[in-house]
Amino acid sequence: MSTSLSRPARPFGRALCAMITPFTPDGGLDLDEAGKLAARLVGEGCDGLVLNGTTGESPTTTDAEKTALVRAVREAVGPGPSVLAGVGTADTRHTAELARQAEAAGADGLLVVTPYYSRPPQSAVEAHFLKVADATGLPVMVYDIPGRTGTRVETPTLRRLAEHPRIVAVKDCAYDLLGSARVIAETPLAYYSGCEEMNLPLYAVGGAGYVSTVANVTPRQLRAVLDAFDAGDTAEAARLNARLLPLAERMMAAGLPGTVTVKALLGGPVREPLQPADRESVDGLRGLYEALLQAESVV
Question: Which family does it belong to (predicted)?
Answer without folding.
Answer: Belongs to the DapA family.
